[in-house]
């Protein structure tokens, strides 16, 4: 008879409960640690007594991958009809416990054609690998199996995948904040070992550098009002005094007016009409227009 494992005291919400006449499959929310707890329990259909229980924790990303493979019928092509994940942790008594969950497609040459999927969870003593993972060490102390029709497993995974997706949407900000915190802690540990990173070379000038005057041309020095270039004196050998070159001044630009345009003159007031005269004041001559264009 399979021994029953100690259940955790903290109660998690149920994502899905699937029951047959011999087994229970329970999925629990452990997404606060980015996992889903998978629990299999066996019981005697005549007496109703439990015959065994085993549990494992599946990463949320692995559950989404499993759902994708099963729902799109890619399980055989991608997973080669077997999906297995190892895990484990230290129990309250200090002993390592390994937990293995396995999903297989095995129709038994047609014998189990209606129930082709087989789920197995094993718990037992574990050992740590060089990378810190926990793997089985010896025979399991708890082992529970159950078979499922393909449509039923699809239904379970549809609900579970939607649950995980909704959780991640609702807790998106906190999930991102947790990832940032983990990244900062990892960088802090790295900096403590190898020292802080070297500051990057500054490629853009600072505000102080922007205010500085431009570099004088080769062979010239600044006198405050402009650049002074060495100018040769009349002896032709390049020696002599240095004549300061004044800074360039703004020069008003002269605009050439084409000859065919007459400058506009200020309008003069028309002479007052003489009393008793019927003649109109002379009209100002219009500007002469050139025939050439």
What features would you highlight for this structure?
single chain; 293 residues; alpha+beta; Transcriptional Co-activator pc4, Chain A; 5-stranded antiparallel β-sheet; 4-stranded antiparallel β-sheet; 5 helices; 11 strands; 27% strand; disordered N terminus
Topology (SSEs and partners):
Layout: E1 14-19, E2 23-30, E3 35-43, E4 50-59, H1 60-71, H2 75-79, E5 82-90, E6 96-105, E7 117-128, E8 134-136, E9 142-148, H3 150-170, H4 172-194, H5 207-211, E10 221-222, E11 227-228
Helix pairs in contact: 1-3
Question: Can you offer a commentary on this structure?
Answer:
The chain is of the alpha+beta class and 293 residues long. It has a domain at 14-160: Roll (Transcriptional Co-activator pc4, Chain A). The chain has helices spanning 60-71, 75-79, 150-170, 172-194, 207-211; strands spanning 14-19, 23-30, 35-43, 50-59, 82-90, 96-105, 117-128, 134-136, 142-148, 221-222, 227-228. The strands form 3 sheets. Strands 5, 6, 7, 8 and 9 form a 5-stranded antiparallel β-sheet that branches. Strand 1 (14-19) and strand 2 (23-30) form a beta hairpin. Helix 1 packs across helix 3. It is globular and about 105 Å long. The chain starts with 13 loop residues before the first strand and ends in a 65-residue tail after the last strand. Residues 1-8 have low confidence and may be disordered.
Question: Could you give a short description of this structure?
Answer:
The protein is of the alpha+beta class and 293 residues long.
